[in-house]
Amino acid sequence: MGPKLNRVSEQVVPPSSDSPPPPDRTEVGVGPWEGPWPEGDHYDPELLKNGDRRNVVDRYRYWRREAIVADLDRRRHPFHVAIENWEHDFNIGSVVRTANAFAARAVHIVGRRRWNRRGAMVTDRYQHIHHHPDTASLVAWAEAHDLPLIGIDNLPGSVPLETYPLPRECVLVFGQEGPGLSEEVRKVCVSVLSIAQFGSTRSINAGAAAAVAMHAWIRAHVFHQSV
């Protein structure tokens, strides 16, 4: 039987006329552990003592960060995600957060090393992130690991993602918001896939495109849904 979580109530109680105004938002997470502390090296004494307000699922409440990463490593999926970062793309944080949600093996950032971590919502602490200074470095790494590069962009001649059998082991590559995949990356991808769109806009947000493509992999290789 798992540990009993001391959840914070999210019930809204109407204030009386003399009560202070309610807080702007409900406090997330759980408070200090109640009762005898559980045994196990994966538990963090500080979190047990003070509470765990991190953005993690209940399974990992009160766990040390290193223990969470180690547990994730035992069950990460064999696809990688790469995103170009030549102009400080603000979508990278969103891509990292989604990669963590879908348990991608790793995220690869090509170009500038610095990126805006705000959108990652601290999930970068639990996700393996690698930096490649240029396209050639990413290609060399992928070849060394026998992983095909699959580009995601709505380009002339691209193949619909919805009809393409994604390899189980691969690297899904995304360009920056606006310019999309660079010419250098397009040349080295074994395929470039487009996401079906039906409105007036030319393209969807790069972070949204990454989420769609990663979920397509999940549908194919976790739920075994054919294209």
TrEMBL record:
Gene Ontology terms for molecular function: RNA binding; RNA methyltransferase activity
Region ranges (Disordered): 1-44
SUPFAM superfamilies: alpha/beta knot (SSF75217)
InterPro entries the UniProt entry points to: Alpha/beta_knot_MTases (IPR029028), rRNA_Methyltransferase (IPR051259), SpoU_MeTrfase (IPR001537), tRNA_m1G_MTases_N (IPR029026)
Keywords for the protein's UniProt record, in alphabetical order: Methyltransferase, Transferase
Residue stretches of biased makeup (Low complexity): 28-38
Residue ranges of domain tRNA/rRNA methyltransferase SpoU type in the record: 79-215
Transmembrane regions listed in the UniProt entry: none
Any one GO biological process: methylation
PANTHER family recorded: RRNA METHYLTRANSFERASE 3, RRNA METHYLTRANSFERASE 3, MITOCHONDRIAL
Identification of the protein by name: tRNA/rRNA methyltransferase
Organism lineage: Bacteria, Bacillati, Actinomycetota, Actinomycetes, Streptosporangiales
